[in-house]
Each structure stands twice: as structure tokens, then as C-alpha cells.
User: What shape does this take?
Amino acid sequence: MNLVSVLESLLFVVGDEGLSLEEVKKILDIDDNTLTQITDKLIDNYQNDDRGIELTILSNRLKLITKRENKEYLQKLVDFKDDEHLTESALETLAIIAYNQPVTRLMVDEIRGVSSAYLVRKLVYKNLICEVGRSEAAGRPVLYGTTPLFLDYFGLKSIKDLPNIEITKDDSVKELYNSKYNEDNL
Assistant: This one.
């Protein structure tokens, strides 16, 4: 088994949050020396100019991050993507966070059935949601909630003003998202 490959896969799956050095040692069942060897190997692999990401250790956490040299292009992507309206998927993610806050990204993923990492980042960037704390669950994942801008945008005085949604067996998912707050209005 190639532990360098396994570590890369683990870091890809956890995304922004990364993994603590202790978590990696426990998951891979390795010692400090082996951890140093495989992280050094992965760092070396990313040193090539043709790679767009790199491995870094921040606050004793291993994370895959984009290379600083690519900042100009990443900013263009963010600016380009920011001009777009919120998609149905983004609205769905926002609704899940609003009705279940505080909530982790993994909880949102479980409700939606697909990864919401990109959508959560987009909603944070648009200042519709923000980090409101850390869960007590393993790895202490980020908890998200809505922002005052979210309330302003949807004309709410407080989160208690969200419409009540009663879900029955007969309700289709599509009907639950019919709202005057569609992506054309965002």
C-alpha cells in the first residue's frame, strides 16, 4: 500500500479542514518518523511547477492548498463565479443551513446526499453564511449559520421569521423549494 497516495486521498476528501498530525498517525497507524517521511515525499511531489496545489502544515494540521503563484487566476474565477446568480443547489444548501443552524458541512452533505463543499464556500464568500463555532464531534468541524446579510436579503427580522415547513410523505422535494426567493431574484 502506498501511504503517500492514501494520505493525498484523505486530504482531498476532508477539504479545507485538513487533518491533524495525530489524526493522520491514527488513521494510517504509523509513527512520527513514518509520518515525516510520507509528508516530505508528498511535499516533494508538489514542488513541480506543473502542480497547482501544495501540502502545508498549519497549526499542526496537514492541508492541501492552492499555490500562491496561481492567485491571479483563482481571483478571476472567484470574481467570475461571483457574478452568477445562486443556483438551485446553492439555494437548497442555504435553506438547509438556515433551518438547521448551527450545522456542519458534513450534515448538509448528508441531507443533500452530495458534497456541498463548493456551495458552502460560495455562500461564505457571498456573506450569506458564516462560521459560528466548532462542533464537539471528532475533528471539531466548523459549524455554519446564517449572517445578518442573509436576514436583510430575505427581509427577515430574525431567523424565527423563516416560514414554517411541514414535510409529509406526499410532498415532493421540488414543491418544497418553490418560493418567491428563487435564483432570478438573487
User: Anything to note?
Assistant: The longest helix spans residues 32-45.
